[in-house]
Design goal:
Blueprint lengths: L1 H57 L13 E4 L2 E8 L4 E5 L2 E4 L4 E3 L4 E9 L3 E7 L4 E8 L10 E2 L4 E4 L14 E7 L2 E3 L11
Antiparallel strand pairs: 1-4, 2-3, 4-11, 5-10, 6-7, 6-9, 7-8, 8-11, 11-12
The structure holds zinc ion (ZN).
The site of zinc ion has 6 residues, from loops.
């Protein structure tokens, strides 16, 4: 009696044992696939995380200073309001800021490379500095004694020249720098990027 029972149970185990092994194998394979998938998606996440972390390290946000000490804003930036220009006897927008100070020194507002040093009768002496992240700063109405030349590397605060009255388009004003800022070749309001505390 007991032998018969054992035999039955034994048979059952023998038969179902195959299934149990098969199921165990299937589960093992499935979980192996699952783990592989999880690992590979973790790797992808890790890769994404790494590249996300590298971006700010390799291109840290640009830091701006001011173009003059104790900036006095003679004319602010206006891109949607016409301002009367007495030397040209016309109304126009003013895509820059006219800045003066007792100390006439004009400084680069950020690290960069001097892209051009020009003179024309409308803008006077101008220095253009290319920065990272698509920014370019332009300093016009400078005196003739420009301190930098094309290709020079400049730091934030490097002296570029001195404010003057060389801009024909802005004649009649005290010595000042006409400062403009470009982002991806488009004039932008410097107030959005620089901290003018003495306005
Ligand atoms: Zn101006």
């Amino acid at each position: 009696m007991s032998k018969f029972k054992e035999g039955k149970i034994g048979n059952f185990l023998k038969k179902s044992g195959k299934y149990i092994i098969a199921i165990t194998l299937a589960v093992a394979i499935a979980s192996a696939i699952g783990v592989t998938a999880a690992v590979s998606s973790n790797n992808q996440n890790n890769n994404t995380n790494i590249s996300n972390e590298e971006v700010p390290v390799s291109s840290q946000k640009i830091v701006f200073g001011l173009p003059m000490n104790n900036c006095k804003i003679l004319n602010d930036y206006f891109d949607n309001e016409l301002v009367y220009n007495s030397s040209m006897n016309e109304w126009s927008v003013h895509l820059g800021m006219d800045i003066s100070s007792e100390d006439l020194s004009v400084f680069s507002v950020a690290d960069g490379t001097v892209k051009s040093v020009d003179y024309d009768s409308l803008s006077g002496y101008s220095v253009e500095v290319e920065h990272k992240d698509g920014f370019v700063s332009v300093y016009s109405s400078l005196a003739e004694n420009v301190k930098v030349k094309v290709g020079d590397s400049v730091k934030i605060g490097t002296k570029l020249g001195e404010a003057s009255t060389t801009s024909g388009i802005e004649g009649g004003q005290d010595s000042h720098v006409h400062f403009s800022l470009y982002l991806n070749d488009k004039e932008v309001d410097p107030n959005n990027y620089l901290e003018f505390s003495n306005k």
